[in-house]
Amino acid sequence: MYAIQSAIRSIQTAVNCPRLTRFSLLAPKTVEVEFANGSAYNLSAEFLRIYSPAADSKVRLVGGEKVIFGRRHIGIMSAEPVGNYGVTL
Question: Which pTM does this prediction carry?
Answer without folding.
Answer: 0.63
